[in-house]
Write a structure and sequence with these properties.
Order of helices and strands: EHEHEHEEHEEEHEHHEHHHH
Shape: globular
Oligomer: single chain
Distance between the termini: 44 Å
Radius of gyration: 19 Å
């Protein structure tokens, strides 16, 4: 199979990280067909840094700020490769990422999503992701993703024809746009995976998320995926949406969080998450962000110790 990778990079105010990201792409043992960077209205020197990198593979496209999902869609619309290799502007690939993805595509050409494990880089060091350990086609993407990281944007490749079939990322969705895309793909295609940790995911990177709540302005909704015949899918979307709602509640979106509490009351697999959201949403606003931060810190420490 003649695989041509178009690397897709959405960029917004990442002047401290974008050069590291692009250099990691250029250092691949299998070179990409092209690197398409979409500057989504950055107000810092991010775009200028991209322009300073001398490579015939690199293209910079500018647009007014429309969000990460819209930036990815713009990049894919301008790309000419057979496969879209995603990487965020603050993460980086190991040198053999595209080589391994090429091997997965050759071995499992019918799949709609190709993923690798990754390392988490935090202020306290490097840690392996909690991901599956077997290479090959994932038996049930939704069940696996309830307890393991199967797919994150910076460690994923999507065939261009799959995007044509299922459509792009959900424009206007601020949280969970990647999971929304995974649902669209995994309902129609199988997912291939390698346990090799070929991406560095930087948790401490700048501008990971906004501290101020702004309601999403999108016609897309996870609720539209609910399928009485697919309980694994239903549990997966509940987990994603309840996780989103906790962040939304912590930032002040009480009504949005309450609506998700009502809709996803059916969940059994994420019952503790549902109760956590219910308690948080009942707290006075000044306490929510502190409780969310404290819980996240404690959960990370417990996960590190394997308790």
């Amino acid at each position: 199979m003649n695989v041509r990778f178009s690397v897709i990079i959405p960029l917004y105010n990442k002047e401290a990280e974008i050069e590291r990201t692009v250099r990691s792409v250029l250092a691949q043992t299998v070179q990409p067909h092209e690197i398409v960077v979409v500057d989504d209205g950055s107000t810092d020197r991010s775009a200028a840094i991209v322009e300073s990198i001398a490579s015939p593979l690199l293209r910079l496209i500018r647009q007014s700020n429309a969000g990460e999902c819209a930036a990815r869609n713009t990049a894919m619309a301008h790309a000419t490769g057979t496969h879209y290799a995603l990487v965020d502007a603050d993460d980086a690939w190991k040198p053999t990422f595209l080589e391994e993805m090429s091997g997965l595509i050759e071995e499992f050409p019918e799949c709609g999503l190709y993923c690798s494990a990754f390392d988490i880089i935090n202020t306290d060091g490097r840690h392996p992701s909690n991901s599956p350990t077997e290479r090959g086609v994932v038996e049930n993407f939704f069940e696996q993703s309830m307890t393991r990281y199967v797919a994150i944007p910076s460690a994923s490749v999507i065939p261009a024809e799959v995007v044509t079939h299922v459509g792009g990322f959900p424009k206007g969705m601020k949280l969970g746009g990647d999971q929304f895309m995974w649902v669209k793909i995994a309902r129609a295609y199988r997912v291939a995976y390698t346990p090799l940790r070929l991406t560095d995911y930087y948790m401490a990177a700048s501008n990971r998320s906004s501290a101020i709540y702004r309601a999403e302005n999108t016609p897309h909704s996870f609720e539209s995926f609910f399928d009485p015949a697919n309980p694994a899918l239903n549990e997966y979307i509940a987990r994603v949406e309840l996780g989103k709602a906790i962040v939304i509640s912590a930032k002040g979106g009480s009504e949005d969080a309450a609506r998700r509490l009502r809709f996803y009351a059916y969940t059994r697999g994420s019952r503790k998450l549902w109760w956590r959201l219910r308690v948080m949403n009942a707290l006075p606003m000044p306490l929510r962000a502190w409780c969310h931060s404290a819980y996240t810190w404690l959960a990370w420490k417990i996960a590190r110790r394997g308790l």
